[in-house]
Amino acid sequence: MKKFLLSGLALFVALLTTELGVASAVWQRAHATFYGGSDASGTMGGACGYGNLFTDGYGTKTAALSTVLFNDGKSCGGCYRIVCDANQVPQWCLRGTSIVVTATNFCPPNYALPNDNGGWCNPPRPHFDMSQPAFQTIAKYKAGIVPILYRKVGCKRSGGIRFTVNGRDYFELVLISNVGGAGVISRVWIKGSKMSNWESMTRNWGANWQSSRYLNGQSMSFRVQLSNGRTRTANNVAPSNWRFGQSFISNVQF
C-alpha cells in the first residue's frame, strides 16, 4: 500500500511538472495551515500592501509566507503550486488535487512556541498559512496543518497590471498588483509626461514602490521588471488629472 501511495504521488507530481512545461521542476517540502475564515475575509490587506484581494486580482487563492519565504516582502505577488503530501498524511489529503496560490501576506514567527508545535512560521521553517478556501482545496479542514510539496510557478492574471497611487505631494507611493508571469517585481521606473528620462523607484514595503518626484498635473507611465528580467511598460496609465487614492488598470500584462 505504501509503495502504491508513493507511486501515485510521483505520478501526480510528474503530471504537474509536464503541465507546467518545466522538465527540471524542483519540488520542496514544507507545511501548510490556514487562516482568515471560510470566506477568506480575514486575509484582506496584509504585509504586501494589497487591499481588497478580489479587486487586486488574487481572490481567495492566497497565502501568508513564513520569514524564510517572505524575504522581507520581495516575494510578494509570487505564485506557488501546492500539493498535500499524501505519503505522510493520507487521512488528511484530498487526493489528486493541487492549487496555485499567490503570496499576499507575511506569517510572523511565534518564538514563544517551538518550531514543531505551534511556531510553524518560525525561521528557518518554510511554511504557508493559506486562506481557508485554498487550504480546503487540498486538505480536510480538521487536519489543521499538513505536510506539503511546493514549487514556484508562473502567475496567470486576468486583465492588465494595476497601479494604485497613494502618498502626497513629492511622495508617490504606488501599489502594483495583478501582475502575471513571474509575479515577483524586482525593479520599477516612473516617468511623468514632463520628464525626459525614466527614474527608478524604490521599494517602500511589500508591493509598494515610491518616488519623490512632484508629478501632479502630469500623466504617469510605469516600467515594471520582474525577477526573471522580463519588462513591461504601461505608458500614460494615469492621466494628467490623477488624484491620490485612485487606481488605474493598464493594458499590459506579462
From TrEMBL:
Keyword flag Protease: no
Function as written in the Swiss-Prot or TrEMBL entry: Causes loosening and extension of plant cell walls by disrupting non-covalent bonding between cellulose microfibrils and matrix glucans. No enzymatic activity has been found.
Places the protein is found: Secreted, Cell wall; Membrane
Residue ranges annotated for the Expansin-like CBD domain, each copy included: 170-250
Species, as recorded: Cajanus cajan (Pigeon pea)
GO biological process annotation, one example: anatomical structure morphogenesis
Pfam families in the record: DPBB_1, Expansin_C
Annotated membrane topology: Peripheral membrane protein
Signal peptide: 1-25
Keywords, sorted A to Z: Cell wall, Cell wall biogenesis/degradation, Membrane, Secreted, Signal
UniProt name for this protein: Expansin
Annotated family: Belongs to the expansin family. Expansin A subfamily.
Main location: secreted
InterPro entries attached to this UniProt entry: Expan_Lol_pI, Expansin, Expansin/allergen_DPBB_dom, Expansin_CBD, Expansin_CBD_sf, RlpA-like_DPBB, RlpA-like_sf
All residue ranges annotated as the Expansin-like EG45 domain in the record: 45-160
GO cellular component, one term: extracellular region
